[in-house]
Design brief:
Blueprint lengths: L4 H4 L6 H13 L5 E2 L11 H11 L14 H15 L9 E4 L1 H13 L5 E6 L3 H9 L3 E6 L4 H14 L6 E5 L11 H14 L2 E5 L25 E6 H4 L8 E5 L1 H14 L5 H12 L3 H23 L12 E5 L9 H12 L1 E2 L1 E2 L10 E5 L4 H11 L4
Parallel strand pairs: 1-10, 3-4, 3-5, 5-6, 6-7
Antiparallel strand pairs: 2-8, 7-8, 9-12, 11-12
Bound molecules: pyridoxal-5'-phosphate.
């Protein structure tokens, strides 16, 4: 029987091949040090959990909530932008709460594109940026991201000018998953100018806004005057507050795009469980020392991993942001490609990494380490990886 139309366009996740091997190894009783998935391992801060529990005891919070998120939650997001970036957002027309940012991105793209619209997506990228456009029947154009930001921008500009019909949307993500690349505000200034000239919608994923090191500060595209005319930004509580399982995200900025997402979501869901929304207000309003502790934990793990890899002869550089290390495959193994290399590393060293090809063809020369193992386990992994060299 023929496969369903949309399902046919969604290939099995490459990561599942490594996950299956990992599972088999664990069934055999092997201890796998697992840097494979960017699934934060640290606990949600206690004051947020406490608020969830007390709000869950109140029967008024057991009813259907509102799909776009309760007003106080949207106001807390708006205040967060004001405090951090000096960006003012109207909680009613420029902020929508989503069931994690993954849901927000996918339904946003479904809401604002027509079948066949050209959507430009960096290669490599977080897979949902690519596949949400695929699910929406958009025409996805991959733009190689590796190299410096100006080269990337030049490629985008070329695509905007040469591709017909003219691209409708550009998806960006800085600090970047998987490459850990970062930009300064000047980059967004150029993006906004380009978007204005070519009537391009821009979707910027700011998931790693808080996970920054060594004095780096991640800019928001909405800091550029007039950016709201064509840009939205996406934020999530998953990473900053260790709340991945809670599913809380936001799409903010351009009121037309936010309004379209609000409309489509009103047909699809009744909003998050209200105690989760109430606890999320507490998270956003602070205190922020829990965020600083999380950043410190990732920084320390990053240093142990990167210093350790360099010591055993695997040359990698230290990322300024994110919870990842994007490691070029060592020269002597590069021919294998990232999938076979990852499978070989798993088999020989019991260390799991994500093959770069899972993020797009442009990622095939790399593997991604997610900093979700503690320092002790990371040192154990380094000792084991040493045997490859
Ligand atoms: C760039 C990026 N955006 C979004 C997400 C998903 O976040 P959420 O938990 O809010 O769906 C991730 C998760 O790894 C990510 O790396």
């Amino acid at each position: 029987m023929e496969e369903f139309y949309r399902i046919k366009r969604l290939p099995p996740y490459v990561f599942n091949i490594v996950n299956e091997q990992k599972h088999q190894a664990r069934v055999r009783g092997e201890d796998i040090v697992d840097f494979g998935m960017g699934n934060p391992d640290l606990p949600t801060p206690q004051h947020i959990v406490d608020k969830l529990i007390s709000a869950a005891r109140d029967p008024r919070n057991h009813r259907y909530s509102v799909s776009r998120g309760i007003h106080k939650l949207r106001a807390a997001m708006s205040d967060w932008y004001d405090r951090r970036y000096g960006v003012s957002l109207d909680p009613d027309s420029e902020v929508v709460a989503t069931i994690g940012s993954k849901e927000g991105i996918s339904h946003l793209i479904l809401a604002v594109t027509a079948p066949g619209d050209v959507v430009m997506v960096p290669d490599p990228c977080y897979p949902i940026h690519f596949y949400s456009a695929v699910i929406s029947n958009a025409d996805v154009r991959s733009v190689p991201i590796l190299g410096d930001e100006d080269e990337f921008l030049a490629r985008i500009e070329r695509a905007v000018k040469d591709v017909w019909p003219r691209p409708k949307m550009l998806i960006l993500n800085y600090p970047n998953n998987p490459t850990t690349g970062t930009v300064e505000l000047g980059f967004f200034e150029k993006v906004v100018a380009l978007a204005r000239e070519y009537e391009l919608l821009v979707v910027h994923d700011l998931a790693y806004a808080d996970l920054v090191f060594d004095g780096y500060k991640a800019p928001s595209i909405l800091e550029i005057p007039g950016a709201k005319d064509m840009c939205v930004e996406i934020f999530t509580l998953s990473k900053s507050y260790n709340m991945p399982g809670w599913r809380v995200g936001f799409v903010v900025g351009n009121p037309r795009m936010v309004g379209a997402l609000v409309r489509i979501k009103s047909y699809l869901d009744y909003g998050m469980f209200q105690p989760i929304q109430i606890a999320s207000i507490i998270a956003l309003n602070g205190p922020d020392d829990c965020v600083r502790d999380t950043v410190e934990a990732y920084r320390s793990r990053r240093d142990v991993l990167v210093d350790g890899l360099n010591r055993i002869g695997w040359k990698v550089s230290k990322p300024k942001a994110t919870m990842f290390v994007w490691a070029p495959i060592p020269e002597q193994f590069r021919e294998m490609g990232s999938l076979d290399f990852s499978l070989m590393v798993l088999e020989k060293t019991k260390v799991a990494v994500a093959p770069g090809i899972g993020f797009g063809e442009g990622g095939d020369g790399f593997v991604r380490y997610a900093l979700v193992e503690n320092e002790h386990r990371t040192r154990q992994a380094i000792r084991s990886l040493r045997t490859l060299f």
